[in-house]
Amino acid sequence: MGRRSQHTACLETSLPSDTAWYPGSPSRDPQALRLTREPTSVLSSIDNDQAYQNPSNNSVSIDELLCSEIDGTLPSGDCITPPFIAKPGSLYLDRPIGQAIDHRGAELLLYFKEVIAKPWFEVTDPDFTNEALRQAPRCPLLLFSLLAVSSSHKSQFVDDPDVAQDYARYGEEYHEKCISLLLPMLNDNESITDGAFLACSTILRWYEELSAPIHGRDDARHLLGGYASVAESIRKDLPWDGFRGTALWIHLRQDTFNAVINQRVPRTNVNRLGIDRSSSPADETTWAKRVLCLEAEVVEYCFGSEGSLIQQYKALEARLEDWDRQKPQTFTPVFYQERDPSQGVPFPIVSVLLDSCDKNTAFPQITVRSRLLKSGSACQRDDVPGPFTVRVMDHRSRGTRCGDKCLEEVPEPPPRKRTKPMEVLCVGLPRSATESLQTALLKLGYDHTYHGWDIVYETPNYSSKWVRLCRKKWFGSPDDNTTITKEEFDEILGHSVAVTDAAGSVFAAELIAAYPDAKVVLNYRKDLDAWHESAVKTLVSVHENWALYILSCLGKVPFWGWHVYERFMWPGLFRALDGNIETGIARNGKWVYKEHCNMIRGLVPKEKLLEWTVEDGWEPLCEFLDKEVPDDPFAHVNKASGWGKHEEEVTKRYMMSALSGVAVLSAVGIATGAIAYKTLW
């Protein structure tokens, strides 16, 4: 994130040649350890080498920060953050000097306290903010993380674009400071088990979530620090109290939220957290923690690799109902209003009085009783109703499973077995004459040549198996093995001797490794701008097709057909991990295209690779495949009009599939999941 320094920041011990007076410090300290930087590209506005000058010559104490307010405006001129005294890899300073803080720093800390903390960090423990502000003066990593997230957040809500740009720049600079301090600590088991370190990880993770729409991706790298902290704390059997305990529950919410978006199991073991999981009387924060643990177990049930039994579902449902029945009265909303889009109210309004109740009431019920549909990261978009779509069904009368264990007890198709070798891999991106190439290969005797439309057309339908391969490719597996084997591909492609379009391009590297004897065709378009325009026009049209989206709620085949492309293949291929395929293709399409072609050229020996365009026609293709040139002219298939016909056909098929399942529904409701979004995150 942010601009990268040209040289690495370092911490070094030094005896200052001229001992400086630090604002707020009563005496000189010739033994100070100073944070220094080698030459860097980061603007010097926050360099620690510069002495801080408080405009008013009055230090701001941390106690004042806990109970004061400021006018929220930047002072004239540029402000410098205070110098820090730290040891290499040390989490804390030798002595607190946090009273020496500039006006901007005070403003941003108060912004965190007043604007950010309550809705995002005080849900399960209101002491988080006070503890963070108390420790910030002697913990540079914590202080810079607070400044980074406050700067970044404020930059998005300032009317003046110049001021907003300044805040965004400050946020990136503060974040770079955090990284330079954090990296040396990762191998220090004492530091990573400290509550301040875990708190920093949660704050930086929120910074990462906040920045994802801007940077076009969410790598969730700061979750790794939280995982390391929690795992080491569990290994040492440390108690979950104090600052470590308050930060833990924020980390658990972030882990679970990311797990839902990426359809994986949460990595935090809730059974090792020492929370009272019973229904005995307790305060609201304990009840909130109980339901967060239950929520994590629900997500694990939905996306676990092991088969999820109906008995497990019923046990989870019983525990949820018990929590709902026994919870304190304060969790009951004092006001509820149904959504009314006609009046400009797209989401229900749910009001509760206590913070610990506000984020924890409805989501577990929605999760247990829902199918997770369109990309969870759609909550970052303002043009879709919410992160989840809920299908209300009579679960008690039918076998029910969640996630890739579909709600209906419909068996998956049997795995295919390879009867003929894979001969040709056409690995060009979609909209690169893939259907014309399929038609040509079928004409040359390559039967069957698998195309992206087969994923949604073929019966029985293997879309759910493609989803599993996508998950393994981009999110790994429980054993951390991301290699997709020939046997896994054969389960879907066993009847095919050639593959093209989506499957061939999305899994190009994996297919090349799995079938080393196959010849590789890199089908491409000479006019990159024309390809890009076509991709935006066609691929995005499906993403914006609300008929297909709604139909995907009503049956297994439409669900997986929508899901495999709109949740996995296109976001992954075009690096649109925020879920916004439209901007992902528009922003990233051209460089992804170039990068993909270069990757293929690097993977495949020249004698086994043909770079081919539809204008080349039969001759080079037949020569490469050692086939005779047919007498028929080369067919050009699936221009823009052809794509539209495919889209109409898919909609028609999904409609028939949905109608066939209506009779078994006790009720079918399409809800936005806004309650989930509002009441948990």
From TrEMBL:
Q: Does the keyword GTP-binding apply?
A: no
Q: Transmembrane region positions?
A: 654-677
What the entry lists under Pfam families is as follows:
Sulfotransfer_4 (PF17784)
Cross-referenced InterPro entries: P-loop_NTPase, Sulfotransfer_4
Q: Does the keyword Transcription regulation apply?
A: no
Which of UniProt's keywords are assigned here?
Membrane, Transmembrane, Transmembrane helix
Instruction: Name the Gene3D superfamilies on file.
Output: P-loop containing nucleotide triphosphate hydrolases
> What is the protein name given in its UniProt record?
NAD dependent epimerase/dehydratase
Q: Which organism is it from?
A: Fusarium phyllophilum
